[in-house]
Specification:
Elements: E1 2-5, H1 9-16, E2 29-35, E3 46-53, E4 56-68, E5 72-77, E6 82-91, E7 94-103, H2 109-117, H3 124-144
Antiparallel strand pairs: 1-7, 2-3, 3-4, 4-5, 5-6, 6-7
């Protein structure tokens, strides 16, 4: 999923790689904190993400797996094997920002129970796609402000 942002890739990069600010634009993430001595994006850097959906609250343990400034940033979530990423491409108007995700690992038992029970929503896929769209729109608004 992508969006055109009227801002330079460096501006957009600074936003999408600042995991402490994800709660400003994500409908589910409430932010993150670097761990293990990391203080910013780099391959191998680890962070803990905080999330919420209705009354549910949980943390994720993430590792940066791709970090090429200002072109690509991705991290893998230990709990569900999902990799989330961003691609940034310069355009004549600014930046084409693409958010993507890929689940190559297995869900933990707790994650499987949460999904199967419907506590995270009856149609999790629809919620995740809508969350990506809303996040892209919010990042665009922030970058262009």
């Amino acid at each position: 999923m992508d969006i055109e942002v009227a801002a330079a890739p460096e501006v957009v990069w600074a936003l999408v790689t600042d995991i402490t600010r994800t709660g400003e634009w994500s409908p589910e993430s409430t932010g993150g904190a670097w761990r293990g001595g990391a203080d910013g994006p780099a391959v191998g850097a680890r962070f803990v993400g905080s999330n919420r959906h209705g009354p549910m609250r949980w943390r994720t343990h993430c590792t940066v797996v791709e970090c090429t400034e200002p072109k690509a940033f991705a991290f893998t979530v230990a709990e569900n094997g999902m990799t989330w990423g961003w691609r940034l491409e310069p355009t004549t108007a600014g930046t084409r920002l693409t958010q993507w995700r890929d689940r190559t690992g297995r869900l933990t038992l707790l994650a499987r129970i949460a999904v199967a029970s419907g506590v995270l929503g009856k149609d999790r896929e629809t919620l995740m796609v809508d969350g990506m769209r809303r996040s892209l729109e919010a990042i665009k608004a922030t970058a262009e402000a």
